[in-house]
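The following record pairs a protein chain with its ligand, C2E.
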Amino acid sequence: MKRSRVILEAVILAFLGALLPLFLTIYGAWSLSLRMEEDRLMDIASQATTRAERSFLDAAATLKTLGGRRFISCTDAHIGEMRRLVVNSRTVEEIGYIEDGMLKCTSWGPENRLIKELAPDFVVGKDIKAWVDVIPMVTGANPMSVVQVGPYNALVDPARLVEGLADQDASVVVTAPNGVISATLNTPDTDFTDKLGRETTKGTVDGNIYAVNSKGGWTAIAISSTNGLFGLFSNEHWFFVAFGTFATIVIIGLVIRMSRKRLSPLGELSIAVRKREFVVHYQPIIALSSGVCIGAEALVRWQRPDGSLVRPDLFIPLAEQSGLIRPITDQVIEAIGRDIGPLLKQHRSLHVAINFCADDFKTGRVLETVGQRLGNSGIANDQIWLEATERGLMDIDEARKTIAEARMRGYAVAIDDFGTGYSSLQYLQSLPLDALKIDKSFVDAINRQTATSAVIAHIIEMAKSLKLSIIAEGVETREQAEYLLDHGVEFCQGWFYAKALPAAEFIDYVETSLKRQDSGVVMLSRTKSTNSSEASLSSRP
Ligand code: C2E
Ligand code: CA
Ligand code: CA
């Protein structure tokens, strides 16, 4: 996967990661504020209807008390009693006494005015009549509500209905049972309240938050604006915003960590494994005496999406450390079956050498994975060489068991990079190996007057005494090839012959090599003849 894509994905994720919690918390805080505000308005509306109903019933009760007593009309005693009741009542402003269509007297004193009796605005029970919005005859003061029981009526100031709610930050409308507005507070938008029903409910419409409460026929609507909500929102819900910010920081942090991981070498390698970005190249293994290709070593390459190839020494150590080497090995083995299975089936003299990590040898997984993945490939077991480094054979008992089992199944086992580890002759002797690969560093030293240059002759002698086949690695010059041939080394691989080739090129290489063999052309002509052009490891102990 391209780094730029990982970075782009990370930026998009971080952006969404930052916005989402912020959006959710703002939305959450907003909805909560809205709900709290609706509840507050419902409380106000409910207080208003309770007051309205109570004032109305209070006034009616006062009048009923008065009606239950006998007075000579409009005497001082009568008027005095009316006045006393007004003073003692919280709701009643004035009481009037009516007889024969005339207002005879009020709690203020005697009167004698003709009353024009209009149909009541609403009636409660049999005997309580009510009018709203009436201008008092005597005082001519603000419009009042009138409650009448029998010959008495009482004036109730509608302001009393919303009294005590005045310090609330809301507009209120109280309507009487007949639907007429009887009190308002803080100049409500009556166009809006007219549209609302009369049953108890709450909600938000067009920037208005409202609550409607109905009780005993009275309805109160409390309204406030969503604009006011921002104050509430920022005051009371700072913790929401704090939480949102915290969540945003955490999410961005996680995204950064995840992207770092993905961009880290290990992250990139895991993605490569998942996307199967590995290809296998094949380095021809040559019989020195004839120059004929007898097989190949399978060498993995990591093919990046841009087509570039990464050398194995750059990722195999990390893969081994992390355990990713196992799926990589599996992919290599599967590729071998696909790439050169048919070729090996056609030419039974050819073999393929596969590199295994130390762990696969220690645990014996090497056998399981090769068996599973190449069992049906058409490649015979004796065409498969398993390469293990000295490190892989450190645990001698386990190694011996794995090697013995491998050979029983027909595979050949070679020790790789021989000479670079610490293995002793004694150690080698105790393992039932088939071949030994001489590390390139010793081949490099051939014919150079260095300390290592003498070592290769000893390694060759040692291998011979153990009856191991020898494959020399990293042959780059004719002199090296001649030296090896002179010293009885049978096989080699190196750039002098061929680099590791993509499968198709390797197949071409083999066909050409075999044709050359058929026509009798031999690359290195030495006087010594060996039987190693018989391309198999035939020197098993
Ligand atoms: P190796 O197994 O010792 O493989 C031989 C390495 O030497 C290969 O390098 C090969 O291309 C290189 N080589 C061969 N002839 C010459 C030559 O004449 N001159 C020079 N300068 N180099 C030559 P490569 O392919 O880069 O592989 C490096 C190492 O990566 C291998 O060393 C092996 O240890 C590891 N490796 C490669 N493929 C696999 C695999 O499939 N599994 C495991 N576990 N390790 C692998
Ligand atoms: Ca190798
Ligand atoms: Ca090697």
